[in-house]
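ok trying again, last paste got cut off:
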Amino acid sequence: MRSLNSTIFTIFSTFLLQISMAVSGQTQESFLHCLSLQCQTDPPISSLTFFPNNSSFASTLQSYIRNLRFISAETPKPLLTVAPTQVSHIQASITCSKIHGVEVRIRSGGHDYDGLSYVSDSPFIIIDMFNLRTISVNLEDETAWVDSGATLGELYHEIAEKSNVHGFPAGVCPTVGVGGHFSGGGYGNLMRKYGLSVDNVIDAKIVDVHGRVLDRESMGEDLFWAIRGGGGASFGVIVSWKIKLVAVPEIVTVFKVERTLEQGATDIVLQWQDSADKVLDEMFLRVVLMPKKHETVKAKFVALFLGNAEKLQALMDESFPKLGVRREDYIEMSWIQSVLFWSNYPSGTSVDVLLERQPNPEKFLKKKSDYVQEPIGKAELEGLWKKMMELGKPVLTFNPYGGKMGEISELETPFPHRAGNKYKIQYSVNWKEEGLKASDQNLHKIRELYDFMTPFVSKSPRCSYLNYRDVDLGTNGIGYNASYKEASIWGRKYFKGNFDRLVKVKSEVDPHNFFRYEQSIPSLAAWRGQMAE
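nice, full thing came through this time. structure:
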């Protein structure tokens, strides 16, 4: 009897698989036909569309997956990937996705920490922006247009090709895609002097849910406000950004020094908490805290100073004497060389390395974030070191605020974490071991450390940074058509009071919630319509 049941089950499973393959084939053919009708270009859109039966499908999908947690056989795959080379390809992809009732994921660099730019539990396609990476620098008005598919490294390289006294305030990882970085806020080691990336965005081009190509004037100030820190993928496909370049001196100074607990790291971190957000805006001093073999904690201090070593020495002697930085620790260089230094490239590396789009090697990873508004006391820090040594794995990075960040209103852009924050914490855990056991162990460690930090960080809400994507904060649930109340659980942690304005904009520009995902801004109109049904 068991043999007969097994045989019936095998025949039935094979039958279902054949039906599924047939339906899949029909869907592919229908979707491609739709794309070709909507977009008759050279090159044809068919040559830029990758289905699962295409030999380039897997390599195209995997080439911009930066977190190995989302590369397994069990990870949901897109029905297809479109890699547009022009705006009409994006317009056609949106139109055909609406016709076929599938979701859209938009990927520029693939650095979404929880994979939301290339994974969904619902049928979906990926609009992969890597072919759209033109950068045009205009030194006459000190601006640049940059496509969303460009990387930060490519942007920095292009600016440096044109000028040695201009830069742009954005992240320190050169392979991050411009599109996601800018639309989530975008911070880096120039933020105390010039604010976030979005504080220096002056125009943009977006394809909306209706397929219209809009710039700042035609989209209106509300939508332009929303895409500068509110997550662009909730509102449309942002094709390019116009940015205002900033001034950097011909010579900047960097250093990197490490201290263990036995070398006085606790007192140094205490002094850092008191001074790092108050020193000259030209100074950015990051602290990276790493447990070492369950025995100690090492604090690595990494600095960028917009000035020469002599001026930096005077600043350090006044504000951070306990760190004990020596004259030989300071390195003077150009701003573009400091980009390489902060990316941990060896001295002498060519700036052309910034044109390489693939970081190596990839890892399994999880990130989280917090904001600290009052200094953590010595006894509490010592308790933190003990906890980190006990866990043995998560790394903490403290990034100082103050300067320009405290001068800009929290209402200016959706990013609200401005005055009142001393520093931001990034929690980070990486691992190389495959399998569910290793994943569960490492996720448990970072969550346990995050829970431990609850008394020392912002409250009501406990805030987080959108670009450190964290689905632990909450999601929109099945179908991603969350109510305002449901989405507020995670939304207020990212956006505080600005969440309400984002919902208003979303409800106006995408009322039926076409652009949706696990943490997309909800549309009140779509939710009410769903409830009425």
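cool. The first strand starts at residue 49 and ends at 50. Confidence is low (pLDDT under 50) at residues 12-23.
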